Every structure is written in structure tokens, then in C-alpha cells.
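cache lookup: miss for this entity combination. No prior model stored, computing from scratch. Input as submitted by user K.M.:
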Amino acid sequence: MIDIKFIRNNVEQVREAIRNKNEKADIVALLAIDETRRKLQFEFDNLKSRQNNVSQTIARKKKAGEDAATELKDMSTVAEEIKQISAALSASNTELEALLLTIPNIPQPEVPVGRDESANTVERIWGKPPVFTFEPKDHLEIANNNHYLDLPRGAKISGSGFPIYTGQGARLERALISFMLEFHLQKHDYEELMVPLMVNRKTMTGTGQLPKLEEDMYHVNEDDLFLIPTAEVPVTNFYADEVLSYKDIPKCFVSYTPCFRREAGSYGKDTKGLQRLHQFNKVEMVRFVEPEKSAEALEEMLCNAEAILQAFGLHYRVLNLCTGDTSFASQRTYDLEVWAPGSQKYLEVSSVSNFGEFQTRRANIRYKDSSGKVRHLHTLNGSGLATPRLMIALLETYQQADGSFKAPDVLKPWLEINLKERQL
RNA sequence: GGAGAGUUGCCGGAGCGGUUGAACGGGACGGUCUCGAAAACCGUUGUAUCCUUACGGGUACCCAGGGUUCGAAUCCCUGACUCUCCGCCA
């Protein structure tokens, strides 16, 4: 969330950010409530101060055996007033808080202004589209040829968008997850976390999914818990309500989780095969860094994500997202799009974002810097990567003329583990 | 699911309803001493918010939210979490 003091002093800038992000938020109402709140706070403090003073006088008089009837009578009316103002005050605080949660993060100046994805710019391109001596098939055909997927049965058991990976397909999926995790652990020095897949309302609010995206999440009514749409949520909230030491910073976590998304409102869009799912696997990177270091950390994380695609030898491009395409909580986002030759299009496999102190304000995550000052950290996260579209690109890129699939060499160790030979 | 115990500052740990933002101990930091270090001694050691250009001052916070009271860390209620025992189960 944005600091109320910042909003007070930079109204136009905040308005512009809301506009550029295609959001709606009532700044006028917000400022009015802020004004009322401060007035009430002032009255409350003054009354309390008086009450504290007189209460001590009463104590002294009673101790000395003197009569304190006047003070007692006086204070009972003050107590009543305090009660009323206190109620009004907490009502305004709640209201202000609710409004503040609807203000999006402010995009950084270098983010291109634009309404939708058409205003995104291409940052760079890696590799080239593969050339085939035959007509390349799309991933679903290859998957079906090789018995890698059983989508009809997934639909039967749960509904569309809940895939079943079968046989070598399941093994390939698991290999991707293991490969990416180990890659980040060993080459990029992240620490692994295994986290809960269901989180409470406060946690969802901390990273910014709530209140805006409630409709997009699976919710378990009975316990008021949400299935996570990304590991970002539990991992970023790892330090909620804590004050870290500057010595602990930076913190870099990587976490594999399934992700659950209702995808409300996107029915009929990119539905073929693994393109858009309600449940999918993702390896996520999250960093907690000092404010001065976050811009640099964003570039590093982008490289961390790219390194995976490079290891697989997949052609991709990096997009610099425009204001309208940057998420509610993000200040700046890069998307990684991998080339799927069978479908002849680029598919988003990663989103790498800098959130500044937006999430750490919401989740109350701070650190004490070397001079002893308590400040909000900056958070970043990036997919590294989401598997379904990665699998699409792999299947389509490494398909053979006979309809089979030949995994890139780096994956071989994960696909060829043979316990029988090791006599376990 | 049932029965009990607990939750206080960076940590340990006191705390009768009225100078308790909180004793005492430890840690950390600064200083004295020392060639240096240890020890010893002295001092410092929270966050948020409001008023003020500033100096400074007020208020809130002893798990969370309510209640009783002129006044609550202290009494009452509800909830969360932790621990122990029983039951059930992976």
C-alpha cells in the first residue's frame, strides 16, 4: 500500500498512477477521511491526556484520605466522551485502511505508459525460432502421441483446466520442477522453502491479491482459507509483522508450489491443452532487499529466470510491461515469453516484478538499517518458471519428425534415474 | 474432538486495579580504564501516531478484539497461537 503521507503530498502523481493502471480509487474520499481521522485523533489524545492527569490526582487524593468526588464526577463525563470519540476514530481508521488497500502501486518512471499489452515494449530477444524439416505439430498432439497427458480424465475428475500428467509426461513435469529448483539453489544461491498451499485472508491481503482479486481465487468457506495462486503469497508473507536486521538482508527464496487460479472471466481464451489452467506447477523466486538495491535485484532475477530458458535452449523474448499491463502491486514488471513453434506464438512463462515497499507496508515487513533506523524492505518476485507453457515450448521445440519427443540433454539426468540399477 | 497450562521489551523473567513504557538479570551499543583485549565501572538501548518550521510535547501499544472502572499489563468475556495429556487419524 502507499503511504498516506505520500498520497497527501503527491495527490496528482497518485491520480495519474491510478489512471495509467486502469484502476479506480476514490482519492477525494480518501483524503477527506484522512482529515477527519486526524481531527478525531487530536481530540482523543487531548481527552486522554486530561483523563490520565486527573486519574493520578484522584489516586493521590484517595491515598491521602481526601475527597475526590468532584474529580470523579468530572471524569465520568470525560470517560463517556472518550468512548464516543474512540468509536468514531476507529471507524475512520477502518474506513481509511479499506480505501488505502484499493490504491495501486505507482509505476516507476521508466515504465512505458499504455492501456494494454499492445503498449508493451520488447526489451530483448534470445535465440532464434527452431527450423523444422517437417510441419511442426502443436504440443497437445505430441503429448497425445506419447501418452504424456490425459486432459479428458482430468476434466472428468475435477473439471477442465486440471491436467493429469501420465507416464513419462509426469516424469518430465517432475524433472522440470527439480531441475529448476536445483538450478536456482546451486547456481543462483537461493534458499528453498516449502510452504502451505492454503493461506488466510490477512496473508492474501499482505501481497495485494485481496481485496481486488477475491473472485480469481479458490476459497474454502469453512475455514476462510484461500488456495494460493502463486508461491509469492506464502513466501513473501514469511516475514510478515517482523523487523529484520540489515545483516540478514538480502534474503532470496525459491519455492515450488502448485498454483490455483479460477481464471474467472477468461473462459474460452487460450484453452487449448496446457495454455491456461486452474492448477499448474511453478517454481517461484522471491527476494527481500534494501530499498536502494531493488532495481538491481530486478535485473538479476530476470537473468535468473532467463538462465533456465537458456539452459533448455529455448527461443524467447523479454517484454517491458506498460503501465496498464503491470499488476496492481507492481512498480515495474518484465515478462518472459517463450516461443512455441507448433502454435507459432510467444507464451508467457515468467513475470518478474519489483514491488518496492508496497507489499512490505501491507504485510508490515521492516528491517533495521545499519544506522538503527527502521524502514520498510523492498520485495521482488519472479517465476522461475511456470511449467505448463514451458512444457509446451519444450514439446514443440524438441519434437521429432516421427512425432516423438527428445528432451534436451540437461534434463537427461532427471529423466533417467534408474533405481533398479542402483540396487535400492 | 475432550481436559489442562501458557502467551510481558532483543532474550530470560517480575509485576497488589492508581508516578509501570514496564522491576531484576542477560545481550547489544557508547564511554572510562588498557599497548591491545578481558574484567570492572558509568551511560544508552522500542514502535506507531498526532501537534510543532524547529526545540519539544501529547497519545497508543505487555497475543488480538470486546467489556467492567474515574483509572486495566493487572479483573471479566470471546478469539488466535503454543505446550502437555486423552481420543481419532495420515
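stored under new cache key. The domain at 117-415 of chain A is CATH 3.30.930.10 (BirA Bifunctional Protein; domain 2).
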